[in-house]
Structures are given as structure tokens and as C-alpha cells.
Design goal:
The chain is an all-alpha fold and about 180 residues long. It has helices at about 15-35, 40-55, 60-85, 90-110, 110-125, 130-135, 140-160, 175-180, and strands at about 5, 10.
């Protein structure tokens, strides 16, 4: 049996639509608090749009919804350019709206935990703006370079390494084990 909310299974379309709206509202909460042009209602509506278009099962509607989100983001950016307010460029709000749409799609496709995780992390990124900027601006060039080198080693090189020892050409396993025992 799948996940349940009380007696209602989470595979019920109505519950998934409701959850998509609630997660969209949660994501829009910080934007509303920050007095951005898109807030709780807009984020909930975009999340609902993603959920409904997914449940209906029309790829055309799903793509159309994604295009609508992108157009809305461009309009927000143009509004910021026309008003001359740098903080009104709304890149973060535009991307967050696309994330909200994606959350609706995830939840409607029964990726409920994933939708919740994306919502929580996205909300953290929005709420911790000052702290994240302060952290990034406080790094020296050497620290940034070290962090980048570590990331390359940890997330690119290490996963490519073989799990088993690689025999060297010209040496057998027997000669390696014997060379360590002589003393």
C-alpha cells in the first residue's frame, strides 16, 4: 500500500492537486513577504497548472504551461527593465515560478516526496538570500578555488574511479602480495 494522509491514499488525484496547491503557496510565501510581483496566489496557481495539466495527460498542455511560465518570467524581467529597478528584474521570482510549475508536475506524477523536498530546498534558498550572499562574498579567491577543486574531485573524478583495484601491466596479483611479505 502507498503513502496515505489519514484514511485518504496519496494516489487520489484530488489530494495530489490539493498538495500541489499547498506546496505552491508555501513556496510563494517568501516572495509575498518580500513584496515581489508574484506571491502566494501566483505560485499556487502555477503549481496547480502543472498538476492539472499533468493529470489530464496532455503533453501539449504540459508544454504550453511551461511556455506560459517562461513568458510570465520574461514579462517580469521586462517590467523590471522598464521601471529601472534592479531588484524588480525578478530573475529569482521567474525561476521560482518555473520550479513551482515543476512541483505541481512532480506531485501529480506521484513524486510526492520529491515535490516536498524541492519545495523545502527552494524555499530555503529564497529565505536564506542574505546569508548565502554573505557567505559567498566572504570567501577569498583561494577558498573559492579550493572548493571548486574539491567539488571536481568529489563529484567528477571519484565517481569515475573503478570500485575494484586495477592490476598494473607487467605485474601479477601474486607478485604484489609476495613483495609485501618479504622483509
Amino acid at each position: 500500500m502507498g503513502l496515505q494522509l489519514g484514511a485518504i491514499p496519496l494516489d487520489t488525484a484530488v489530494l495530489r492537486i490539493s498538495l500541489a496547491a499547498a506546496l505552491g503557496m508555501f513556496l510563494g510565501l517568501e516572495r509575498e513577504w518580500s513584496h515581489k510581483s508574484a506571491g502566494i496566489r501566483t505560485f499556487a496557481l502555477f503549481s496547480l497548472l502543472g498538476a492539472v495539466f499533468t493529470i489530464v495527460g496532455s503533453e501539449t498542455l504540459l508544454v504550453l504551461g511551461g511556455v506560459l511560465v517562461i513568458v510570465h518570467g520574461v514579462l517580469l524581467a521586462v517590467e523590471g527593465l522598464l521601471t529601472g529597478k534592479e531588484e524588480s528584474l525578478a530573475l529569482t521570482t521567474s525561476v521560482s515560478l518555473l520550479v513551482s510549475y515543476g512541483i505541481g508536475v512532480l506531485v501529480a506524477n506521484d513524486y510526492i516526496l520529491e515535490g516536498v523536498v524541492v519545495t523545502v530546498f527552494s524555499s530555503l534558498l529564497l529565505v536564506l538570500k542574505r546569508e548565502l550572499h554573505g557567505f559567498a562574498w566572504g570567501l577569498s579567491r583561494a577558498e573559492l578555488r579550493s572548493a571548486t577543486e574539491f567539488a571536481i574531485l568529489a563529484f567528477v573524478v571519484f565517481p569515475l574511479l573503478p570500485r575494484e583495484p586495477v592490476p598494473l601491466p607487467g605485474r601479477s596479483r601474486r607478485s604484489r602480495s609476495n613483495s609485501g611479505s618479504s622483509g
